[in-house]
Protein 1
Amino acid sequence: MLKKIAITVFFCTSFLYGWSQPKPDSVQLKRLIRLCELWGKVKYFHPYLSYKPIDWDSALIQTIPKVKAAQTSSEYARAIDEMLGMLHDPATYVIREPQTSWPLSLPGEAHPKVYNYDEEILVIEMTDYSDLSNLEETERRLKEVKSKMVNKKAVVFDIRKLTKDGFTWGSLEYYLRRGGLIPVLCPSNLQYSGQRYRVNYGALTAAPSGGFYQAGFLTLISPSPNYQSEGATMPLVFLVNDHTEIPAFVLALQKAGKAAIISEGNVTDEKLVKKSMVDLGESYMANVRVGEVIFADGTVGFAPDVFIGPYTKYEEALQFAIHYAESVTSGKVMMRPSAKPASILPYGKPDKKYEEMKFPPEEYRLLAAFRIWNMIEYFFPFKDLMDKKWSQVLPQFIPKFQRASSEKDYNFTVAEMVACLQDSHGAFTGISALTSIYGKSIPPLLIRMIQHKPVVYKVAHDSITQKYGVRVGDEILKVDGENAVDRIKRFLPYLSYSTPDVGERSAGSLLLTGVLNSEALLEVRNGDGVIRNVKLPRSSTSEALLPLRARTTEVVKELENQIGYIDMDRLKEDQLEEVKALLGKVKSVILDMRGYPVSGAPYQVSSWLSPNVNARVEVPVTLSKGEGFEVMRHRKYQYPTSNPNPNRKLQFNIPSAVLINEFTASAAENFAIEMDQSPNTTIVGSNSSGADGAVSIFFIPGGLPVIFTAADYTYEDGRQLQRVGVIPDIYTKPTLKGFRKGKDEVLEKAIAFLKTKRSK
C-alpha cells in the first residue's frame, strides 16, 4: 500500500512539475520568435543596413545555433548581443544594468557653479544635475555668466553628469535657455541638427513591380530657435561623459566651428539618436537605432573633438578641458570638426537567393521563414483581412521549417506559409512547390472547374479525342486512382488564394500534373453518365497550353440586336479603330474580361465608355521614429497610367455589360473596377479574383520566389477588393449541362439583359 502511495505521489509531483516548468522546446521557440522580430526590425529600420557593407544574413546564421544552444537567459541575451555587435553600432545593444559607479556626492557649492579660472577663461560646472531642479536659483546663477563673460577669451562648460538622479531628458538645454545664456553663446543664424530615418514606400525588392516601390531616408531637421544673438564670439569648450545630455545648440556650435566637445570616456551618438525598444523576453530588451544625426548641410554623425580618460579623479578631466581652451585661445588648436557626407540609400539592396541550396541547412531554412514573416509584417497591406493573425503564423511555422527533412518538405512548408496570406497573387509559390514535386507535365488538355467539378474544358487538337477517347465536357472522377475532388482538396493548403473560386481554379489547374512522359490514368464520366477509363501521356506543360485558354471567337464583332462584343483579353492597340467604329454603330456593348489583358488597349476603351473615375491605390509606407513602427497608407490615383483620352469624355454614351469571373485577376480587375463605377455599366458573371494591385517578389534560400500583393487597389470610394473581388450586378456561372451543350451562359445572360435594358 505504501509503495502505491509513493508511486502516486511521484506521478502527481512529476505531472505538476511538467506543467509548471516550460518545456525546453517551447523556450527555444519563443527565443527564435523574438530573434526573428529583432532581426527584421534591424533589417528594415536600422540606417546602417541601407549603406554599410554588413552581411545581416550571416549575422543571423551565426546566431541561430547560439540561441538554440543557450541554457540560461544570460547565454541567450549574450548571443543576441553578439549579433547586434556585428553592426558596430554603440546605439544598438541588449540592455543590461549599467556598470558605472556613481559618486554619492560632489565637493563644493551647489551647481551651476560659475568662477574664473584666470583672467581669460571662465568655468561653469554643471555636473550635479539634481541641483538644477531649483529653477529660480539656476536662472540666477546662469544670469551671472553674462557679466562674468566680459573680456574672457574662452568659456569651459563642465556638463558631465556625475550623479544618478531622475533628471528629465531635454532639461539641460531648457535651463540654459531659461537662464538667457543661449543667445549669448550662439549666433542668430545657427542651424540645429536633426534626425534622418529609413522609410520604405512599399517593398523594394530585387524584383519590384515596374519600379513601383521606393526606399530612402526621411530627414527631419529641428527648427533653430528664434532669438537675437547678443554677440559673444569667444571659443567654447564642453566637457561631457557618457551620461551627459548634449544640448542641441552644442552640436550646432560644434558643427559651426565655434565650440569643441571633449569626451571623458567613449562618448558616442548613442544618446543623441532615436532608438526603438524590442522585447526579447526573459526580462531582456534591446535598443535598436532607427535614427542618425544629420545637419542642414547633409552631413551626418557626431564625434567629440577629443577623447580623454576616463580619469579616477573628478578634477583631472576638467583641468584637461581648461588647458585645451588655453590652447585654442593661443592658436595652437583650431576648432574645425570633420564633416562626413550623408550616405545615400542604394536602389534595391537585393537579398541573396542562395540558389545552390535546393534543400538548405536548418539555419537557412529559418532565414527563409524570417524573411517571409518580416516582409509580410511590414509590407503586406492586408494583414487585417487574413483569417489567422500573422503573429500566430511564426510560432506555427518555425518548428515546421526546422523539421523539414527534404527539398520536398521545405518547398511544401514555404508554400503552406505563403498560403496563410490568402492572396491570389501568392499562388505562384504554391504552384511552383507542387509542380516541383509532382512534375510540371500534363496531358494535352485543359481542366476547368464547373459547379465544383473538374471538367475537360479544351483539348489540344481533335486527334487527342480520336486517339484517347477523352472529350470536352467529360467530368474527371479520378486521377491515377485518386478521387479528383479529394486530390484538389489535398492541394489547397499549399495554395494562396483570395476567394474559394480562385482556390478551386488553381488546384484544378494542377489536377493532372505529373512527371514528363508518364501516363495519366483518368476515370471520366460523359454527359450520358457513362464512366470509362482513359490513359493519356503527360507530354505538355501549362505554359505550352496557354494559347488554349484564349477564346477563339472574333475579338471585335457585332452580335444580334445591335449589341457589340469586344474580347478585352485579346484586344490590342492596333484594333482600337475597329472598336471605335463598332461603338459608333451599336446601341450597347459587351466587354468580355474573363481573363487577363494582353495590352493596355482595354483602358482606352474604358475611357470612351466610363466617366472620370479611377481605381485608388494605397501603398504601405513603413517608418520607425522611436517606439514601434508606423505604417501609413500613401494614397494616389494609379490607373489609367497612360490614357490617350485624358479628358475622358463620354464619347459613346451607350449601355455596357462587363463579363467577369475568377479568371479576372489583377490588372483585369482594375479595368472592371473602373467600368463598374460607370452608371451605364452592368457587371455580369461571378466574383473576380480578389487580388488587384502591384506585386512584390522576393527570394528565399533555394532561389524560391515569394510573391504577394504589396499595394492595395480599391474602388475610388474605398470599397474593398482584396479577398472579395469585383461583385457582379447579375450573378451567374456556367453549368455543366449548359457547357456540354456548347452554351456560353454568362454571355447569354448579358445579351438578354442588354435587350431588356434597351427596351425600357
Protein 2
Amino acid sequence: MRIGGAVAIAVVLVGIVLATSATTLRIAPAGPDASPDAAPVGPVVYYEILDAEASRLIERRLDGRSPARIVASRTEVDYGRTWNVDPDGTMALAVISGPDDQKLEAVSIATGAVIWTTRTPMAPLDDAVWSPDGRLVALNVIGSNEVSREALIVDAATGRFNRFTIPEDVAIQGFDPAGGLVLRQHLPAADGVNAGWRFLRLDPAAATISRLTVMPEVGPANGGGEDVDPAAGVGVDAAVDEVGGGSVVRVWPLGGGPPRTLATVASVDRVVIDPTGRGVAISAAERIRFVLFDGRAVDLYTGDDPIADFAWSAGGDYLAVTTDREPRLTVVERATGRSVIVPQHDAVAQLLMLRVVGGVPLPASPLPTAEPLPTPTPAPSGADVEGIAGVVSGWVERTAAHQVVHVQRLVPTEGGGLRVAAEMPAIELGPPAVPDDGGPELRLLPRPASDDVLVWIGAPDRSDAWIWDGSSGLGRAALPPDWPVLASDAAWRPDGLALAASAGRATIEGEFEVLFVVAVLGAGSTTEIPVVGPYDRLEGWWSGTELQVGHGVCTEGCAGRFAYSARLRVRDRRLLEMTTADRSHAPIDTIAYDGPSIVLSIINDDPADDIVVKSPSGAGPENGLEVIGFAADGRSLLVQVPTSTGTDVLLVRDPAGRAVDGRLDDPRPERLATLPGRNLRIEVGAGDAWAIVTDRVEDVRLVRLVDGRSWPVDRDRVLAWLDDVPAGSN
C-alpha cells in the first residue's frame, strides 16, 4: 500500500493549494526499474478495433520485432466496447449483447481459445474493474426505473458470478487486497462549496455492504469529471471558474478541509490521478497535461485530433491515448517522454484502448522495421462480367487553383477489379469559391433508354447541367434560356426528353417562393409550376404528364389528414393525393417501424390503409433490422438483418398484395445474399441482382448478390446504376 495523507474517517472533506508550473520535466515512475540496463523487451499494448467485419482484440508488443497479433475476433457485435483485458494480459473478456441479456466469454490471450462462456444481465465492460490479482472482475448491471442497480462479481477462472444490489449513487472504486469491492459515494456538502466522498465495502462472501471507517487500500478509479485515490489521500474534480472563466481543477485532501486550485485551464474533459498518486492528468481537446501535487507540470501528449480516451498502465510508467476523428493509438513513456504511434494499416471504424502492461522500458526501436502494408485494390483482368452494364462513377478533383469534374463508366471483370470502360472529358470549373464551402455537389442521372448521363453540378450560387454520351461526347444540356440559374432535385421524364427540378425566387414582398420547373431539352422556354398547398418537395415523375411531389411534413399545426405524396399534373396544376390504388403503379409508401414490425403507410394519421409486415427475422430496428427500399418490381421490400456472421439481404414479395386485413404475419422472406460485416449501407440495383455496399469503415464494394462476390470501388465517389433507375424518380 502507498502511504498518503489519509485519516481513518468515513466522510472525507479535503483541500490543498498548489500552483501549476510550466517547467519541462521527465517524471520517473515509481515501481519497476526504467534504467537503460533493463532488458529492451518493451511494454505490451492491448486494444480493440472494429473493422468492416468484426471486433478484434489486438496484442501489440513494442519490442522492436513483433507485428500486431489478432488474439480473437467477434463478428456479432456493433459499435461499443466488446473486450476487456485482465491486469497481467493473460485473459480477456468479451461481451456479445442479446435482446434481453448478454453472452460473457473469457478467452486466453495466448491462444485465443474460449475458456468459459456464461450469460449475464446486461452489463457493459466500459467500467469493469479487476482485482489486482486478476481473480475477480466486477461489472455494473444496467438498471432501470423498475430494476434496482446491481453489481456482478465474476470468478475469472470459472465464469461463475453473483449479483449484488448496490446503492443507485455509487461508483465502483476497485477491489481491496482481501477481495472486497470498494464503492464510492460523492457527498456534496450542505454549503454547496465543500464536497467529499464516502466509501462502502461489498463483501462477496457475506453478501453485505458496510460503511468503511478507515481509508480502503485501493488506488484511483480512472475517473471522468472526478477521481479519488484513497491510498494517496486525495480526490480531484473539475469546476467552472466563476472569476476568470474556463475551468479549475481542484484537489481535496481526504483528511478534511476546503479545496484549493491545482490548475486553471480553458476546458476539461477528464481528470485522472496517476497510479503512483503523485499527480493528475488533465485532458482537454487535443492535449493532456500532467500536474504533480507539488505544483510542477508537463504536457504528456499533444496531437491534431480530439482525444477520445486515455489511461495509465498499472505502474504509471506508460500512458495510452486514443483519438477521435481519426482512430489512432499513441503510447507515451513517462520516464523519457518518448511516444509511439501504434500503426493501423487498414481502415477501422472504432479503436478502443484496453490495457498497457508496462514495467519495462521502450527499446530504441519499438516497432519492427517492416510493417504490413494496406490491402491493395486489385487491378481489372479478364473478360467483363456478364449481366450488368456497370455503374457510373464521378468525383471532383480539387486543388487550390482548380476544380475538375471526372466521370467514368466502370464494369466488373472476371479476374477481379473494375475496368474503366469509358471516361468523360473532364469539366473544368475554375478555382474554388472564397470562402471555400467544400463543394460543389455532383449528381449523376442516367438518361432513360439511352447511354447518356446527366452530370448535374450544384454550387451555392448556380447549377449546371451537362450531358455525357457515355463515350467521348460531352455538352451542356440544351435547357431553355429562362431555366433558373439555381435549381436542384433534377429528374428525367420517363421518356428522357425533358427534365424537372425544384427552384426558388424572391418575391416582390421580399419573401422566397419555391416552385417546380419543367423543360423539354431544346425548347425555347421553361414551364413554371407553383407549389400547390403544402406539397413543396419534388420526388420525381409519376408519369409523362405528372410530377410526384411530397408533403412538407410539419411537426405541429398540421390540420387534418393528408397523403405523404401526391400527383401534380404539369398542364393544369391539378393535384391528386395518392391512394392505395396507386400502389400498383410505383412505390409511394412511407416506411416506419412498430416494434419488430415494418409499417407501410400512405396517409399520415389514418392507419386504415397501413400494411403491417411482421419482421422477417423477429428482430426490430433496435436490433439492426432495416428496410433497404423497394425492389425492382416496385412492390416487394428489400430488408437487411444482421446475423452472427454478417448481414442477410432479404426479399419480402408484394406485402400489400399478400396482406390480410392490413397485416402480413407470414412474410416468407427470400434470402438474396449474406454479406460480410454489419452496420452496412446497401443500395440494391440492376434488377435486384447487384448491390453497392458501404461498410462501417467507409469501404465501398460492388457486390453480385447471387454469390456474394465483390469488386472494390474507390471511396468518395458519386455512383449511379446504368441500367436500373429507381421507380418514381424518373
Protein 3
Amino acid sequence: MEQTSTMFEQSLNALHHWKANLFKNISLIRSNLSHNNELSKESEKLLEKLHQNLKQNHKAVLAIVGEGSRGKSELINAFLYSKYERRLLPSYPGKTTLCPTELFFDLHSQSSFIKLLPIETKVLSKNLSELKAEPQHWEEFPLKDSDPQDTVEKLKQVSDFKSVSKEEAKNLQFDLGNLDINPDNPSEYLIPVWRHAMISCDHPLLRQGLVIIDTPGLNAFGSEPQLTLDLLPQASAALFVMNADTGPTLQDLQLWEKHIYPLFNQININLYVALNKADTLWDDYTNEENEQKNNFVSQIHSTTARKLNLPEAGIITISAKKALQARHQNDQTLLQKSHLPQLETLLSTGLVKSKESQIRKTVINPLLRILLSERRSMLEKSNQLDHIEKQNFDLKHNQSFQNQKKHIEPEKKVKLLQNSQKLLLQQLKALEQRFNEKSAQKKVAEAQSKIHNTFSKKYIMLIISALLEVTRNDTEKLRNQALLAKQCQDQLARRHQLPKQLLAQMPKLKISIIEELVLSLFKRTQTLQGNFIRTQKQTEEILIEFSKLAQDILNVYKEANAMLMQWYTCTIKLFKTHTENELQIATEAPNLPSVLKTQEILALRRKLKKNIQFCEHMTESLALPMSHFQHSNTNKFTRPGSSTAIEFLNLTNNSTLIFS
C-alpha cells in the first residue's frame, strides 16, 4: 500500500487506540473509586452514561455527497482498492448508485454481508433508524471475503432498477415527474429496487472504525432526499464532489445551499470539496498552454471557494478515475498527479480531529469533572483528619471536649458566615452596578435609534465609537471595584481562618478576560471602519454590521455578570463549607470511639493519598493528545474467535459487564 494510504490507516489506528485507552480508563475509574468507597451515586450514573455514549458513537463517519455522475462511487473505489484490486461499487456508464449506501466493518458478524431495504418499504411511516432496528424489513446476502469478484457482483445490486406501472409508482409515493419512462414500455416507469444498502466489508480502513456513506445524487430518478439527508448528521466529515471542468453547476449549488451547507454549518462538521474528473483537463501542453491550464484550475478553485463560502485549503482537484488506474498499475507518478494522496491526508486529518473533538466534549470533559469532584471530596476528608489530629493532641494534654466546643463557639461561627454573606453580596451589587447589563441594553437601544435616523456613514461610525467608549469606561470602573472586592474577600478569609487548602481554592475575579473582549471589539470596529471607507459599503451593510457588534457588546456584559455571580457563589460556598466542617467536628467528636488512634489516622491518610494520586494520574492520562497513540501497532482485527478479535471485544465490552 502507498505511503499516503498508510498515513490514512495510521490516523484511524491512532483514533482506535485512543478510544480503546479511554474505554479502559472509564473502567479503571469506576472500579477503583467504587472499591475504595469514593464514588458518589451521581458520578456512578454519569460514568455508565459516558461509557454507553462512547460505545455507541465510536465510528469515524465520512459522507460522500454530491449530484449524480460526479464520480463519488469511483472515488470510494480508489480509497478501497488495496483490498479488492478492482472496483467495489458500480461506477461506469449505465451503473450508478441509486440508494444511500453505508460501508463499514461489523466485527460481531461471522462474515461480510450486504443488507438491502426494498423500495416497497416506502409506504411505511418510519425513519431510517427505526427501520434499522427491524431486521424483518431487510434482505441480507452473505459476501465471501475470499472471493472479491463475488463481493463486487453482489454489490452491483445498489444500482438495480425495475419497471412498474403508473399506479404502482404512485402507490409507492414517487413523483412521476422525477422518474424515467421505460423505453421498452412507455406506459411504465423505472424505479430503484432498493431504498438503502448496508455493506459490511473486511477492509483495513473499515476494520479501524471508518464508515463511508455513499449517497446517490438528489437528481437521480426516484431518489429520496430525506433518506439521504437523515444519514448526514452522523458524519465526522463530509466530502462534496463536483466536476473539475465546470466547477459548481446550478444543480450543485441548489443541493449545497438547500441541504448540505446549512446542515453542516449547524452541527459544525468538517466539510471538504473534491473537484473530480480533473483528467478531462489533462493533455499535452506547451509551457504557455500549461500555464493557461494552471490559471484555469486556480480560477475554478477560487470561484468554488467563493460560491460555497469555504476556504480554498479545503478544496482539492482530483481524478478518481486516474487514481484507480494508478493503484491498479502501481504507478506512483500517476497517483501523485491524481492528487488522491493529498485528499486522503486532508480527510484523515479532518476525520480524526472532528471525532477527537466530539469525544473530548461529550466524554472526556465530563470524566474530568467527575475526577475533580471526587478529588475535592477526598481533600475535604483529609482536612477533617487534620481537625481530628488536632483534637487528639488537645485530648492528650487533658483538654476537655467542652472546652474545645466552647473554643469553637458555634454561634459566633454562624454569625460570621451570615455577615460574610451580606458583605460579599454588597460587593457583588457594587460590581454589577459598575458593569450594568440593563444600562448597556438601554445605551445600545439609544445608539440603534440614532443610527436608524441618519444616513451619514461618518455619523454612524461616531455613534458606534461612542458606544464602545462607554463600554471601555465601564470596564475601567469594574476593575477598580474588583480591587475593593478582592480586599473584602481577603479580609473575610482571614477572619474565617481558612486553611491553606481552601485558600488555594479561593475564586478570583479575572477582569482581564473582559478587558480582552472589549479590546477585540475596538479592533473589529477599526477594521470595519477601514473596510467601509475602502470598499464604499452601503449604509444598509453598515447597519447589519452594527447589529452584530451591538449583540457582541451585550454578550460581553452578560458574560461579565455571569462571572461576577460565579465569583460570589463560589466564595460563599467556600466559607460555608469551612464553617460546616468546624461545627461538625464540635458536635460529632464525642461520638468517635475514644477518637481515632494515630495508626488509624495514618492508614486513612495513606488511602486518601493513594486515591488522590489515582485521580491525578487519570486526569493526566485523559489529557493525552491522540497523537500520543499515532505510532501504536496497527490492530489487525479478524472475525470473532481469533485472539486479536477477542482482545478487542474484551477491551470494549469489559466495561459493559462492570456497568450492567
